[in-house]
Amino acid sequence: MTRLSIFTRSSRHFLRFYSSRNVFSPVQSIAGPLDLIEVEEFRARAFLPERPLRITAPNAEGASDWIPAANKWFTHDFISNESQSSHTGRRILSYSYLSAFASTILPYELTTPVDISKTNLSAESYKFLPVLMQYLRNSDGKTFHRFSAPLSLFLQASSAPCPWPPSLYIAQAQLIDLPSILQADLPTPFLVTNAGKGDIYDANIWMGIPPTYTPLHKDPNPNLFVQLTSRKRVRLFRKDVGDAIFSNIKERTGHVGLSDVIRGHEMMEGLESEYTKEAVWGEDITGRISEGEGLETVVGPGDALFIPKGWWHSFMSLGNDVTASVNWWFR
């Protein structure tokens, strides 16, 4: 089935796709936590043969035992009445902890309708709109926008009873640009520094209001990705399969210069975005790849995913809670 979405909480502004028949094989998995995986086992199972590997969290607490950010940065949303206070099960950012870093400037992305001001908004969202518009004013994009703004923007947007706007995304914010206290909350995994040469190419955080999406791309270095809260679905293709899918996208769009790098602007709006999303997440993918040519998995809190160099992949958020993850590109 295909579900059309627009810019509201109950429905979204872009197409969400679901395959009618699963031709994807599961990613091989081993039980974690990540910080207890032996380097030699990781090298033998994944790093040297260049095979994707999911390392599962041992319990519902996810990565809180070994990544302080998983516990410090997030909390449960509580509902209070006269007799008691209980949490809703919804995970939100911990304003009490992160507000001390509200002035930290971060890179944002946002996908919107052509005219966001004409969408139906709640009273609370309408009040927030002028704050958001000051950052979108100089954007060259029609529906996809990149801008820099303080962390306070995300804290305000995500703390509402109905977080708005959907798809507001702190995308690829480098750890080295964070305050030292927040950097310390995201220690580098032992596997990253010991499985290869010990070189870290880059490390980033990703936090968004669902739905969030990363289009099909491949990385120039091995990637260790860790989900901090909420869940994401990932589809992966080995190099030859991904190359064929990407070549087809370029042929359909007539855009021979289409970039395969992560989150290229042309991949995020217009026909290129539509065709790229359809090629990976559309239900007719069952007619374009054979069974076993693609891998799929879901990463939840504390789960890690190793993506070898050259493997094509795309992420989709699941659920309505704020999603957050961290990754290290290394060699």
Describe this structure in a few short sentences:
With 331 residues, the protein is α+β, with helices and mostly antiparallel strands. The chain has helices spanning 39-47, 68-72, 95-98, 123-136, 151-158, 180-184, 190-194, 239-253, 270-281, and strands spanning 2-3, 16-17, 24-26, 29-31, 53-56, 74-80, 85-93, 105-111, 144-150, 169-174, 200-208, 213-218, 223-229, 231-237, 294-299, 304-307, 312-318, 323-330. A hairpin with a 4-residue loop joins β6 (74-80) and β7 (85-93).
Explain this structure.
Residues 162-331 form the JmjC domain. This is JmjC domain-containing protein. The longest helix is centred in the C-terminal third of the chain and has 15 residues, at 239-253. The termini are far apart. Helices cover 23% and strands 31% of the residues. The protein is an alpha+beta fold. Helix 8 packs antiparallel against helix 9. It contains nine helices and 18 strands. The radius of gyration is 20 Å and the shape is globular.
Number of strand segments = 18
Query: Structural class of the secondary structure composition?
Result: alpha+beta
Assigned CATH superfamily: Cupin
Largest sheet: 9 strands, mixed
CATH class: Mainly Beta
CATH topology-level name? Jelly Rolls
Order of neighbouring strands in the sheet with most strands? 4-5-16-13-18-11-10-8-9
Order of helices and strands: EEEEHEHEEHEHEHEHHEEEEHHEEEE
Note the beta-strand portion: 25-35%
Helix content: 10-25%
Q: What overall geometry do the principal axes of the alpha carbons give?
A: globular
